[in-house]
Every structure is written in C-alpha cells, then in structure tokens.
Amino acid sequence: MIYNKKWTLKYKGEVKETNLSKKINISPEISQILNNRGIENEKDAEIFMNPSLEYLRDPFLMKDMKKSTERIKKAIENKERIYIYGDYDVDGVSSTSILYLYFKSIGFPVKYYIPNRLEEGYGINEDAIKKIHDDGCDLIITVDCGITSVKEVELANELGIDVIITDHHECQSEIPDAYAIVNPKQEDCNYPFDMLCGCGVAFKMIQALTDEEEFKTSMFDYLEIVTLATICDIVPLIDENRIIVKNGLKLMKEGKNLGLRELIKVCGIETNKIGSSHIGFSIGPRINASGRLGYSYLGVQLFTTDNEDEAKEIANILEGKNIERQMIESKMYKEAEEILSSDERFKDDKVLVIAKEGWQHGIIGIVASKLTEKYYKPTILLTIEDGEATGSARSIKGFSIFDALVSCKDLMNKFGGHEQAAGLALDAKNIDELRVRINEIADYNLSKEDLIENIKVEYELKEDSATLDLVDNLHKLEPFGLSNPSPRFIMRDLLLTNIFKMGKNKQHLKIIVENKKSYECVGFNMAYLADNFQLGDKVDILFQVDENNYNNERKVQFLLKDIRLSHPKSAVTNNLSMKLFEKISPENKDSLYSVNTSEEDLVIDIDGDKNINIFDYIEEDTLVITNTLNGFYRALSDISLTDVEYEINFNYINEKNNKVQLIFSPNIDKIDLKRYNRVILYDYLYNKEEYSYLNKNILNSDNIIKYYGEEDKIYLKNIIDNIVPSREEFINIYKQMLMSKELHLNLDEIKRVFKILPLKTFIILKVFKELNLLNFEMNYEDNTVTICLLQKPDKKLNLDESLILNNLKVLKQEYVKSY
Questions:
Q1: pLDDT tens by residue, 40-71
Q2: Residue 595: exposed, middle, or buried by beta-carbon count in 10 A (0-12, 13-18, 19+)?
Q3: pLDDT tens digit sequence for 391-441
C-alpha cells in the first residue's frame, strides 16, 4: 500500500490532563495542542491566546523608516503631490487602502495607482511612471511592490520623482536606487521580525508617522484591513502578525470598516463567528477576483468609502466578479489537467511547467496553487500572448521557486516573489528550456520523499473528544495560519458507510464513516479520491474539526484533508492483499518453514498486550513481524505515522540499514535477528518453537514486544485452516489448466476464475510448479499472474512428494500443538 501523503503525529499517545490545563482551565485536548506549539507554561499560553497590541514593535527599528517619514512629512508640509503605488492582490489593495485612509485622516489629498493585472502585470511599470509624472507627482510611495523595480525607479529618478519603497518580498542582488527602502527582508535591516506582509509594513509606516499616544486609538481604523491582508498573504501568524490578526478579528466582529462589513454580509458570514478561514476562503478571494479580472480599484474604493450605499454596490459587484472568476478558473483547471494527461513526460517531471495561449493572466496563480496541492509538485503556469509567456509559480516545502528562477534568470524578461510563490515573464520560445533547466535543479534538490506531502497531525482524536465543545474551544487558539496551522487530527479504522461526489461540478467529496458514532466528512476539491474506495472498506481519515449548522441544529462535521485505506472490505479485490496471500506459502525448498527447538527450550509466555503506547517502541533498527492481513495493516498504519523511515519486505532480508523493517509471514530462521535492536510482533507466531527461536537469537529478549490480543488469534487460525488445500481442490485447478493451457489474469480475478480462496490457489500453483506440472509468473507492476501448463509428466502425479505441501502440513500440526 503506497500512501500519497505522509501523516506525522506531533504527539503520539493518549491525551491526558496536564498542569497547564488545570492552571488555566482549558481542556486536555487544547493543552496538548499548545504543547505541540512549544507552549508549556501559563505566561506563554496567556500571550499566545491573548496577544496584546501593547507588544507591537518600534517601527523605527526598520531600516530607512526615519528617512521615509521625514520625507513624507516634508511633502505634506510643502503640499507636494503624493502617489501611492500598490499591487492588485489582497495585500496590495489593503496596503493602498490603509495608507490612503491615513492621509485622508490628516486631511491631505493623495492619489493611488494600481496597475491593471491583465494589461500591465505585476509591480511598477515604466508607462505608469510616465502617467504619474504627467500628473505632476513629486513623491511615489510603493506598497507591497517595488523591491525588484530597478529600471522603473531609475526612470522615476530621471523624471525628478522621489520613490519610497515599502515592500516585503525577497530582495535580489541589485536593489533599486530609491530615496528610501523600507523592507525588513533587506540584509542590513535590523528589524527583529521580517515576516510582515506588505500591508503590515505599510501599517508600521503609519505607526511611525503617527504620534504614539494617538496611534493607540487611530490604529483601529486600519487593523481590520491589515488583518485581512496578513491572513490572505499566508505569512507566519507569529509575533506581530499574531498580535495584528487576533485583535483585528475581534474588531471585525464589530464591523468598524464600512466596506468590509458589507462584503462580509455578501459572503453570508455571521459576523460574530468570523474567523481566519472565512477571511482566507471567502472574503480574500472576492477582493482578489476583481484584481484578477482587471478591476483592482474596486477593492480600494470599497475599503475607503464613507457611503453605505456605495459600499453595498461595490460589494455586490465584487460578488459578481468572483462568480465570473470561478467559471474561468474551472475551465482553466480542466484544460491544465488535459495538458498534463496528454504528455507522459509530466509524470517524471518534478516541476510542472504548463503553458497555453489565451489563459487569463489573473487566474493563473489560483490554478497553479490547486495543481501544486493536488500533485504536490512545484508548478509554473504560463499564458502565451504575442510571443511572451507570463504567469505564476507555486512551490512545495523545501524548494525555493524564487531561487530556482534566479538560476534561470537569463531566460527571464521579468520575475519576482519569494520561496513559495513567484511571478514571471519570458519569451515563449524559452518555455521548453525553462522546463528542462528548472527540472534539473529540482532533480538535484528534491528526493522522491520530498515529493510526498508530510501533513503534521496534532494527535489521534478519541471519539469521545470529537464534540461541539472541542469546536468551540479551538477558537481560543485562533488565528490559524502559517506557523499556527488549523489543528488537524486523525481517526483510524472507521467503517466507510457512504461516499458520493457533490457540488455544481461534482468536484467535492462527502463521506460517512462510523465506529461507535457516525461522522459526516466533507473534502473540498477531493472528489478525485472517490474511486479509490468502496463501501465497507475500513479507512483512516485526517481532518479538521468543524460544525454543521443546518436548520439551527449544530452538529460536529469533519473537514477532510486526506483519507487512506486502513483495511479493504474484500481482500480478494485488493492487489496488496493478494500479494500478501501469495507470500504466505514457501516459494521453493529454500524457503520452507523450518524452526526446530527442543522441548526444554520452549517458551510458555506468548501473551501480548495492546494497551501499550506502541509509538514508544517504533524506532530505527526495529523489525516488525506480521503473519496476517489484519496485523500487517495495523502495523503499516502505525509505522507510517512516525518519523522513522521504513521498508516493507515480503522475504527475509539481511542487508544492514537503519530503517524499520516490516516483514509479512517471515521465515524467522532466515533472518539475522542480532542486527535488530527490537522486534515487534503484531501477530501471534505460527507456533511456540518460533517464539523460542526468537528468544534465543535476539541480543536482548526484553526487546521483544508482543503487540496483539487474544482476539487476534482468530486471524492466524483462518490462515492455518486454509493453508493445506484438499486433494479435490488440487484436481479442480489442474483440470481447469488442462482445458485452458494458459491463463493471464488480474490478481483480483483469481477467486472468480478458480472458485477457490486465493491463499489456497497460490499454494496449489506453487506445489504444481515444484512438481513441474505448470509454471506461473507474478507481475506486481501490472498486478497480474500468467499461468502456463507444462508437458504432462511421464509418471503419475504424487502430491506427497511435494516438499512445500508437506512443510505446510507440518506447520499446521505445530500450530495445533501450540495453541
């Protein structure tokens, strides 16, 4: 079983009450989440849950802040013409809005300029500089852009315009020759927190321009908008960002900003329940939608208006633009998927570089994000127009797309961004070269393991804890975002009772799972997983806890983030299970079961204990032994949740490595037991002789962990009951092969064709192969088996001559004697 995503538990074990949970009166579940974030004492918990605005840092610690504010105050004094130059995304629109509101509050008229995304692209452009100059501008203050605009600033300087850059994007080797640059990411900037968004930097400039006492009051005029930008720009919600967002969300419930209040209404969000997820998934996309379609000014107009009717009108226009954006996005996503499926090379590419003529500039970033999320590969999406390709790049953890583009800068006309996201433009003729070179960089920097998303999980949630109280208590940990992600949990071994696709385009997934209780789970944009499961399967789910409030009836609902098979409903239709069945019986005389121990050495203590925390025992150089499908799937689920690398082996192995070795149906006497620090048994062994052999040959018998219970004995008994086929079953298969001569079957067809359990079928095939009656080959890449009848032997068939069959009979006898 290959998992598409890795799940790693931050805390492995049962959640219990702690001193912290008692002291500050919070539940053990919330206390453990705080602990997972490194918060272990009362004071740190208080600061985390109630971050005060008093902790905002001194803005003058930022390089060029003093120089910038002095220049702005001089411009105000001399009545110079000031332009705010923003960007078209949420961060840029928000930055422009708060700086405009500041000047409006002091009664000083300024203008703002936001480039049209479709016609001008990202950042400062020379035509815009010329337009602004023609309007008599003396000073440009950039927000959320400008740090890469070397030529454009040079032009402004030539035209006699001073430029103050405020930005938060990564700096390139050449810095613009601006009057001043306020960007905490500059190497020589000593500001202690460099993770602010563009609007956060603009907010610090307003703080620097305002009297300290006055700012304690006036900051509330900007806080909601800065909160919106901070959440939507996906910066780490720590330090000042957490202070801003925690307090901004409280303020948003009061609805101080008229435009934002109307937009929240249009989204259908209950103001008193607004959280970071509403901002990121409902409000932000509506602001972005206008920018993506070339109407960025609407966002600034919405946030700066004093007129309620105008605010309502703009909010409704934004809603319409968002619907339009969704339609374009859906079409573009479908086309991108078609390009991926039509070219085999994309399967091996570690970075997806996809280009097409006619794609909408403004929507490309969203589609790139969705493809990155689905395939967990860095993605560059480009639209081609008049021989130039422009677009957006999105990346995965551990691969800086910005650094990769820097390495390919000779191919670029323009690019900028940061580690996880970037914008770029290049000649269309260079697209193939970009694809080749950026994949060479990725081949060097990304391993296969890097391309498996590692989802961090808080802990395994017990059913009794999945309550509405938990939903309510989780709000205390908001705001959620980068560095404080929404808590994710797992539940395992749940019965899948319903599964269906929903949504206008059937793109969403809804499942019902149950154990003691039944749970409704919704997976947005996860409908593509539906075909991997069937009703009756046991599944493990990874989710966020939420609520469904329908007809004023509140109930717990899970937001699905991943789902994987725990145990198939039918082993005979599951290829991995079939492979396990095939490996139970010996291949040949060299792989026969052959443990012999004298009576006095026999081990009596074979009882197991499933009440231990197994995660305390899974570590490097551990051998995990399983003998049944149930034990194998349990072991695989547990091991996969740890940080330790593991291998699945169907035969004994003796090469040295540090990985956990998961072995199914082992020949214990053929394993070099002394090289393992520990052995974990997830199943009963076939007989007591095997326990004795294990005790004698491992370095320390105290390191044998028996992780099973009395109820697990039934799974091994089922195997033993079917391990020796009857003579009639041998005859039936041989007769069928006499008629067919040759068969080429999918593994899941075996039971249907031979009408015998797969375990018995594989044993019969191996015995016949041993006796030279037929030959068969397993192909696990295609999950097929090819069986060929051999020439009829001269002498009569005698099953008693089969070493394999006799060996299995002895194994069954030893099992009966032992149990």
A1: 888 888 888 889 999 899 999 999 999 999 99
A2: buried
A3: 999 999 889 999 999 999 999 998 888 888 888 999 999 999 999 999 999
Contact 490, 466 (CB under 8 A): no
CA 304 to chain centre: 37
CB atoms within 10 A of CB 413: 12
Q: How far apart are CA 315 and CA 286, in angstroms?
A: 9
Residue 693 CA to residue 380 CA, distance in Å, equals 57
Q: Position of tokens 């319903």? A: 498
Q: What is the mean pLDDT of residues 77-93?
A: 93
- The pLDDT value given to residue 519: 93
Write the CB contacts of 266 (distance below 8 Å, at least 6 apart in sequence).
286, 315, 316, 318, 319
CA dihedral 718, 724, 725, 728 (to 10 degrees): -130
- How far apart CA 519 and CA 497 sit, in angstroms, is 10
Confidence of residue 1 (pLDDT cuts 50, 70, 90): low
Helical packing angle, 284-292 and 308-342, nearest 10°: 70
- List Cβ neighbours of 743 (8 Å cut-off, separation of 6 or more): 737, 753, 785, 786, 787
CB–CB of 804/763 below 8 Å? yes
What is the C-alpha to C-alpha distance for residues 767 and 342, in angstroms, rounded to an integer?
A: 45
Question: What's the pLDDT tens digit per position in 22-32?
Answer: 888 889 999 99
Helix/strand/coil for 794? coil
What does 571-640 look like in DSSP terms, one character per residue? Answer: GGG-HHHHHHHHHHS-SSGGG-------GGG--------SSS-GGGT--TTEEEEE-SHHHHHHHHHHHH
**Main-chain phi, psi angles of 14, to 5 degrees:** -80, 135
684-701: buried (b, 16+ CB within 10 Å) or exposed (e) per residue?
A: bbbbbbbbbbbbeebeee
Query: Residue 436 corresponds to which tokens in the numbers above?
Result: 């080749």
Element at 383 (helix H, strand E): strand 379-385
Return mean pLDDT, the chain: 90
State yes or no: pLDDT of 597 exceeds 70.
no
Q: Is 728 exposed, middle or buried (0-12, 13-18, 19+ CB in 10 A)?
A: exposed
pLDDT band at 160 (very low <50, low <70, confident <90, very high): very high
Any idea which residue has 């966002």 for tokens? Answer: 299
Strand ranges (E), 92-209 = 111-113, 139-143, 162-166, 180-182
Identify the CA nearest to 193 among candidates 230, 222, 223: 230
Structure tokens at 390: 């422009």
Q: How far is CA 118 from CA 289, 296, 362, 390, 429, in A?
A: 12, 11, 7, 10, 21
Peptide bond into 666 cis (omega under 30): no
Indicate the pairing of strand 660-664 with strand 622-626.
Answer: parallel
Q: Is the pTM of this model over 0.85?
A: no
What are the tokens at 356?
């097409």
Query: Mean pLDDT across the stretch 532-537?
Result: 92
* Statement: residue 651 has pLDDT above 70: no
Pairing label, strands 111-113, 82-85: parallel
Rounded to whole angstroms, the Cα distance separating 316 from 492 reads 44
> How far apart are the C-alpha atoms of 593 and 631, rounded to whole Å?
20
769 pLDDT exceeds 70?
yes
